[in-house]
Design goal:
The chain is of the alpha/beta class. Helix content is 35%, strand content 19%. It has eight helices and nine strands. α3 (91-105) packs parallel to α4.
Length: 225
């Protein structure tokens, strides 16, 4: 913002709201609307969904939405329409490729766990893409939902009990913020995992296939060394 000539407190005021749970999103979104802010930055699909429910006029900008067309937040990538726009990660394409790469890296894997968040709107179309990808690869998928950080332990216990050969984490704000815990659980249960962000690998995860945010039209593989 400084490079564009804006100085916080002088030319611009930024109102931060940091919800600790999904349940707080609606209240914080409504609070910002009551303040009549000029624009709302909502990083991903789950935040966009909450803000969309309380305003159809204040511009909403997202940075890492996984599937804005698939969940109905915009009409199309070229012509979003309405009051919502931003940058998309195209999660449905990414998760299918992640599953393919994981199978290449762990060829003996025939039963793969999929850790996903039911509270993230873009995860439902992503799960459909994963299922199609699993059928093409001839692997069996075990869906392991995790709504909160408290659910991770149970999800890994279920995957271990069901004897999966590894797992794929569908990227979300939760999986990134809890990357150290996920790496710890993977090591504890001795399961190789594919993640959706480089940060997960840097925290100790095995591998990832992720968009390169410094080069918006490219993606990279990362491997823990």
């Amino acid at each position: 913002m400084r490079e564009l000539g804006y100085v916080e407190g002088k030319d611009i005021v930024i109102e931060f709201r940091w919800p600790e749970t999904v349940d707080q999103l609606s209240d914080f979104a409504a609070e910002l609307v009551r303040m009549n802010v000029d624009i709302i930055f909502a990083s991903s699909s789950i935040e966009v969904g909450a803000v969309q429910q309380v305003t159809k006029t204040i511009p909403i900008v997202f940075a890492t939405h996984a599937d804005p067309v698939g969940v109905g937040h915009v009409a199309s990538l070229a012509h979003p329409g309405g009051n919502i726009t931003g940058l998309s990660m195209l999660l449905t394409d990414l998760v299918a490729k992640e599953l393919e790469i994981f199978k290449e890296a762990v060829p003996q894997a025939m039963r793969i766990g999929v850790l996903w968040n039911p509270t993230t709107p873009s995860h439902r179309p992503a799960m459909q893409a994963v299922e199609v990808g699993g059928e093409k690869l001839g692997v069996q998928l075990l869906m392991a939902p995790a709504r909160t950080v408290e659910d991770f332990g149970g999800a890994f216990a279920t995957m271990t009990r069901e004897r999966v050969d590894g797992f794929l984490v569908v990227a979300s704000n939760l999986s990134v913020s809890q990357r150290a815990l996920l790496a710890e659980l993977a090591l504890k249960h001795r399961l190789p995992g594919m993640f959706g962000t480089r940060e997960n690998v840097e925290a100790g995860g095995l591998m990832s296939y992720a968009p390169d945010l410094k080069r918006p039209h490219s993606a990279r593989r990362y491997l823990h060394r």
